[in-house]
Amino acid sequence: MSSFKSSLLAVRWLAVPAAALLFTACASTSTMTASTQAPAAPVKVKVFVAAMFEIGKNTGDRAGEFQHWYERYWKDAKPIAVPGALQPVYCNADGVCGSVLGMGKVNSSSSMQAILLNPQFDFSQSYYVISGVAGTPPSRGTIGEVSWATWLVDYDLGHRWAPEENKPGEPTFMPRKGYEEYRRFKLNPDLVGWAMKLSADTPLKDSDSARKYRLRYPDAAARRAPFVGTGTHMTGDTFFHGPGMSKQAQYIAKLYGADDYVITEMEAAAITLVIKRTHGTDRVMSLRGAVNFDQGNPKETTLQHLDPAPGETAGGFAETVENIELVGSRVVDHIVANWPKWSGGVPKL
Predict the structure, then answer these.
(1) Backbone angles phi, psi at 40, to 5 degrees
(2) 292: number of Cβ within 10 Å
(3) Structural domain boundaries, residue 255
(4) Is residue 67 within a helix (H) or strand (E), and if so which, with residue range?
């Protein structure tokens, strides 16, 4: 082989590794550039609003628990997907975020857990508004009212038996030992006080159908116009109904040392337990609007009340879901507008 051919062959063999090395170097530089890009900073959540369900879309149709909140705070916000949560989270530039968590204790609390642990959010200084519709005993509340919880009590976590297997008139519930730390939660009295101070005088919506429906009940509380109040919220997966079950809920509230039972709902105690294990409960609020009574009027049976004939429902649902946001947004807006005073904890009243 001539020296000229040998030189050409050497150049050919050398050229391939050089090109490969150049490609590898470029790819490596590109990878380093991509990997060194700083991840997006997590959203610093000042207030998180939790709703349980929405009827249709988030805006423009019949409103469920989320729509009025969405239209006030997140109409132009992009959804943030969270693996493990029922629905995406929405946030605005002021640090107000919210989501639909799902109905019932397991559904809602699993969504809350997924959101709290997601690195896209910073909940280290967050306040929480657990928001939704509910029932109320006619001796304590009325259709359209809005209530801030002082206590959250789990209706379950105990033993129950049939009334016919009991002495007449005695309770058919016994608390089970071992659940003391998560069967009831006393919410921060200072925060409840602030909520009432900021929202007690909120003008509330009412309807002719709700006014007419209230007159079926003899109780003075049931016949009241909508108001903003406080009391114990009872969380149970069972949609309990009737004077006997209502009496039992009041019995449980008193047994646990809580305030009067005024609201029946299905999520708040479970969501609060999740928040407690990560950030404590000092910044948790439970806000509920009553859309039904927890029992029928004296002229109807419990089953008739549970399955009313057409035109016999309570009415006032649309007004109540609006009332919830009207009341709650006063507190949310105050916290955000005065964040330097609230970021470190609930100010003294």
Answers:
(1) -60, 140
(2) 22
(3) 43-342
(4) helix 67-73
